[in-house]
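chain below, 387 aa
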Amino acid sequence: MKYIIWAFRIIIGLLFIFSGLIKANDPLGLMYKMNEFFEVWNMNYMIKYTEFMSVCMIALEIITGVAMLVGNYFRFYVTLLLALNIFYTFLTGYALYSGKIKECGCFGDCIKLSNSVTFYKDVVLTAMSLLLYIYRYRVFPIFQNAVINTAIVGASVIFSFGIQWYTLTHLPLNIPSAPWSLFHDCLPYKPGNNLWEKMQPAKDAIAPEYATTFVYEKNGVKQNFTDKNYPWQDSTWKFVSSKNVLIKEGTGQPEIHDLTLTDADGQDQTEAILTAKGYTFIWFLRQPSTAHTNNIPRLKTLMAKAAAMHIPFYVACSADREICKAFQEAWGMKDVPFMIVDGTVSKTAMRTNPGLMLLKDGTVVKKWSYKSYPTDMTLDNGNLELK
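prediction:
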């Protein structure tokens, strides 16, 4: 039994650390997934707390994983581990059997698992954590010195919150040499991706197939119907709801399918901007009233230098056209074209509000959060250098 306990500790500990580290590089990804659950449950009042909940949940995964390996305060942490796994099993089970949540996002955007795989994984982990809970009195810390054990767990606390603070204010890390999707920007707008190409389906693409299910009620009994047999002529049946169910997964679909940039006249400028040759700046501005504006002067200096170098500079604003125009005038950016972009697209393209993106021939070169705009730039033989 000793070896089984050790094996379970190592498996669960490493898996929780791995899962937490992947999500720590993009805490907003988990926050948006939480928002999706709360919207489905009609609990929109909880959405204002989800960023805090996301950070704490990710930190708990890393800290609990480390504690499983170290064995310090094991009885407390194994109880917490069991509670987390039961909670995760409930969430993934709901996503699987309700069909209302497409993906649970347990490994963020880097490793996508189907709802069925995720659910059965959590069932196994719950069983393993239950066994560890039952035999919790047989587990002892790996070091006899309690100070060392406490220091290791304490370091994991500092690291788990520190790395999330950094990625929330400076964008997700993108370290290509990091193994197993750790510290990778896995979103379709990451540096190195050509945005226009990512918007095109493959030549042999097959569209996904959906079927609409209608729920009607008669004499207190609910029944599901298809679009071919629903009782539209029988007034004794009362319509309750409808939902689209995925019948067949599509293949070769574009990674970016909802990016549209429209100008002040409502004209679609997406293709013109994303296929332009040379360098292009796009400043993503989501919710102008709550955007971080402490580095606006530095940004306006870049705008002026870009104009002098004939480098296009656009603002992708996710608000009503009149609101965007009001902020354009208030910030003294009348000469900078403001484009309207969907708020969900903006959240995916740029995790901070606001943030700057540099394209070259439509390919993302680099992204900066509002904390780290370049202070200067020079154009030498067609190569743009930023400091």
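The two ends are 58 Å apart (CA to CA). The first strand starts at residue 209 and ends at 218.
thats it, cya
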